[in-house]
Amino acid sequence: MRALPSSAVTHWHRTADVVIVGCGGAGACAAIEAARGGARTLVLERAGGGGGTTALSTGVCYLGGGTRVQRACGFDDSVADMTDYVRLAAGHGCDDERIRLFCEGSVEHFEWLCALGVEFKDAYEPEKTTHPFGEEGLHMSGNEAVHPFAERARPVPRGHKPRHPGEAGAYLMRQLIAAVEASGAEILCDCRATRLVRDDGGRVVGVLARLDGADIAIGAERGVVLCAGGFIMNDDLLAKHAPQLLRCNYKAGCPGDDGSGILLGAGAGGEAINMAEGLVLNAYYPPGKHAKGILVDANGHRFINEDAYIGRASDAMLNKADGRAWLIVDNELWGKTQVPHRLAAVEETFSELEASLGMPAGELVHTIETYNRHAARAEDPLFHKSAEYLRPLQTPPYAALDCTTTGSIYGALTLGGLSTAPTGEVLDAGGTSIPGLYAAGRNAAGICREGRTYASGLSIADATFFGRVAGRRAALSR
Amino acid sequence: MRALPSSAVTHWHRTADVVIVGCGGAGACAAIEAARGGARTLVLERAGGGGGTTALSTGVCYLGGGTRVQRACGFDDSVADMTDYVRLAAGHGCDDERIRLFCEGSVEHFEWLCALGVEFKDAYEPEKTTHPFGEEGLHMSGNEAVHPFAERARPVPRGHKPRHPGEAGAYLMRQLIAAVEASGAEILCDCRATRLVRDDGGRVVGVLARLDGADIAIGAERGVVLCAGGFIMNDDLLAKHAPQLLRCNYKAGCPGDDGSGILLGAGAGGEAINMAEGLVLNAYYPPGKHAKGILVDANGHRFINEDAYIGRASDAMLNKADGRAWLIVDNELWGKTQVPHRLAAVEETFSELEASLGMPAGELVHTIETYNRHAARAEDPLFHKSAEYLRPLQTPPYAALDCTTTGSIYGALTLGGLSTAPTGEVLDAGGTSIPGLYAAGRNAAGICREGRTYASGLSIADATFFGRVAGRRAALSR
After folding, report:
1. What are the two backbone dihedrals, phi and then psi, of residue A459, each rounded to the nearest 5 degrees?
2. B430, A2: Cβ pair inside 8 Å?
3. What is the spatial distance between Cα A74 and Cα A71, in angstroms, rounded to a whole number?
């Protein structure tokens, strides 16, 4: 939606210094910092309450460089080590300055969250998992210990989950929203931003919004911060920009993730970038022992090291195996997954298993023969799975868990959004900032640019960290 | 570069009804139609002469539905058959209306080209090739006869090469430029457009350009048509939008393909879409018999039906084989490729070959054993190569042609550009057209959206066809 010229606004129903669109992880943190920076801050939340997609998540936050939890659990981390890894995890197109700020500021960000009342327990979860199911505060949440990452950056766990059993996103957001309220910022719920307002000089000076069945104009004297999420809920935008995500059957987002924040920014001249990229998740582990199984395609061939983070493995399932993948385990390895995986076949021999799955005769048998021969020596010359997950598959019966796009759950979220400077300023296609306009969280293209390199917690860490940066910056703007 | 407000233009050095930026295939056709439509037409070409990337190409144009050449060569085609195939070849995100216009208008477009003096010889080249090396006017230029396309659309050849031995792009452009001159349109060479000019209502009303060391303002009373090519020559834009293309070591374009036309349009509010997509070409055939060899990755495993169009196979080499691919042939199949491929290894047995290539022991041997066993029955249950390319590899010595990104030539061009209506009108992110602004050719996201589904000739056919549409439309605009 193209921005409205301010000359068309006859009456400002409200004004604030900083107006923030969206009260998820990014918006809440932007609000806290803007208010603390002395700005009259107003947050517009289209839902009945704040929380956004962060509230629906595991709450894992990617933090490091030597946090209290890391040190208490005996892990030595540094800004340099974290930077080495985040460069790999960010994926293509992420600028060095953004990564530098993120890694250098990570311990401070951890402490800032703690000071808000977000608790983290000093305990490490060693199991390979999407997130600790208990209250443990630390786990290895990405590809740190995995080929080819482990050879390029020293592996250190950086997934920090707030102290809450199971999924901790709602707990995290409760603390953040309480802090917004304590900061003096106001949250206006059931209020949907519909259009930005720009003055003659191109500066964003306000927002049109829908509230109580009426359109209102809200002036923003210092700036507008777009924190309205990604676009996984908008099938038209997915078809246009990230059609492969339409192959996924579970949308990891809240209803507000319809791309409206991205379109608002584009309508004011902002450039949307990285729009083709997304994170795809088929959680074939935990149980962590499933990484000792093998993933095969419709020809019975492996295509990835199975100890990869599920985002990386799921990207390969979709793009290398064309969405036709099965996890092969023996009787000792079989376990229940969180989102249940259908048993596609169970047989006493691999020959019967490949026949049951309709694979070409002899191919799965050969794949297993090769895998077992090397695994017996704790080697995987083909895909370089780490030794701890290498063991021959030899205890019948053998099972194939359905990991196809038609038979299992593929979750997805988008990683494209407005182009921003590391300060949160929204940029146009020429790299010039749009005065008065900021963005953070999945409304922007942030630290996490590629699903195949992603680590759990990167998106929430990015949203909360750069939400703060954008809120501070907007509060200083005139 | 953001568009300049017309209020800032104090003097229009020139005016025309329609100003066209770029004189390649799209620009030339836009100019002919605009001039014929009664518009005073001015073409700005930044190089010393017109031609653009079309002049550097093979000149193959994807045409069908029953052209004179198709009929003379005994091929029965229809608009419906062509539409079925073009839907597959266009790839994700291409709108049905654009495909409908393109297919319904294809015979007329062929005749229009002929009437301009572009000759096509009524002769068919049956060899699997990137383009006929002789003067033959017709060949199967994409994945028509190949899995999985052949099962979904009736295979018909539609690659039309102008009558000229070898590469015919320069010949094609000579005819088009002669027609531009005959049409009354003026071509201004060595003139680089630097900025669009917009009036208060947002209508594009002119262009700033650099000519003879000075900046001039050129008024466009009916419209500006951007035909300035893609962005394969701009590494910064590639890093931002299509980083995988930076893995390719040959840029299939002319120096003007630096994305400046896309940025001009974006600066006037146009949305750039499909920016992550490109066509990748590693020409392991011709000779067509190379499709009887097998492509393997670093593990000695196949990953694609080798009779696929090279754009599809090369995409798989890059993305499924991670840029580490080899073509394995036996002594009878070996032949010289146009752009020579290094022999990575030549051995008497496959066991020695896999050792020479550093592949895990037994894997290539197994791959060949499986392939040969099925090929002897003219079957390929793994990748569905068509029967005519299936024959066991059994005449030593055996050779591996280096198709790695580090050892062979990967050509690339971009398939992203401005979002347009099928009329050529440039659209913003909300789908609203920018008055007075049109785009065609690789400056726009056209018919061809994906390299993995592409067919030779799609880009030139799209550029010339929709260049005409945009030129006609601009001439009618007020």
Report:
1. -70, -40
2. yes
3. 5
Q: How confident is the model at residue B291 (pLDDT cuts 50, 70, 90)?
A: very high
Hey, what domains does chain B have and what are their CATH numbers?
Answer: 1-279+414-478 (3.50.50.60), 283-402 (3.90.700.10)
The pLDDT tens digits of the residues spanning B225-258 come to 999 999 999 999 999 999 999 999 999 999 999 9
Chain B residues with beta carbon closer than 8 angstroms to that of A2: 269, 428, 430, 432
Whether the link from the prior residue into B286 is cis, omega within 30° of 0, is yes
Is the CB of B148 inside 8 Å of chain A's CB atoms?
Answer: no
Residues 217-246 of A with CB under 8 A from B: 239-241, 243-244
Mean pLDDT calculated for residue range B359-372: 98
Q: Phi and psi (nearest 5°) for B350?
A: -70, -30
Go through A414-437 and write b for each residue having 16 or more CB atoms within 10 A of its CB, e for each that does not: bbbbbbbbbbbbbbbbeeebbbbb
CA distance A102 to B293: 49
Q: pTM of the prediction?
A: 0.94
Q: How far off is chain A from B14, nearest CA to CA, in Å?
A: 27
* CB–CB contact A273 B320 (8 Å): no
**For residue B229, which of B204, B263, B197 has the smallest C-alpha distance?**
B263
Task: Give Dmax over CA atoms of chain A in angstroms.
Answer: 77
- Of B92, B319, B429, which has the smallest distance from its Cβ to A243's Cβ? B92
Phi, psi of B257 (to 5 degrees): -75, 55
Q: Is 0.85 exceeded by the ipTM? A: yes
- The CA distance from B347 to the nearest CA of chain A, in Å, is 22
Determine contact: A267 vs chain B, CB below 8 A.
yes
The closest alpha carbon to B130, from B295, B255, B335, B308, belongs to: B308
Please choose, from the candidates B308, B317, B345, B309, the residue with its C-alpha nearest in 3D space to the C-alpha of residue B329.
B345
B119 reaches A (C-beta below 8 A): no
**Per-residue pLDDT, A1:** 80
Looking at CA atoms only, how far is residue A401 from chain B in angstroms? 21
- At B123 the three-state DSSP class reads strand
Interface of B with A in 427-466 (CB under 8 A): 428-430, 432
Tokens of B294: 């097998």
Confidence of residue A477 (pLDDT cuts 50, 70, 90): confident
- Would you call A382 and B92 a contact, using CB atoms and an 8 Å cutoff? no
In sequence order, what are the residues at sequence separation of 6 or more whose Cβ sits closer than 8 angstroms to the Cβ of residue A241? Answer: A231, A272, A275, A276, A416, B93, B273
Of A92, A266, A299, the CB nearest to B271: A266
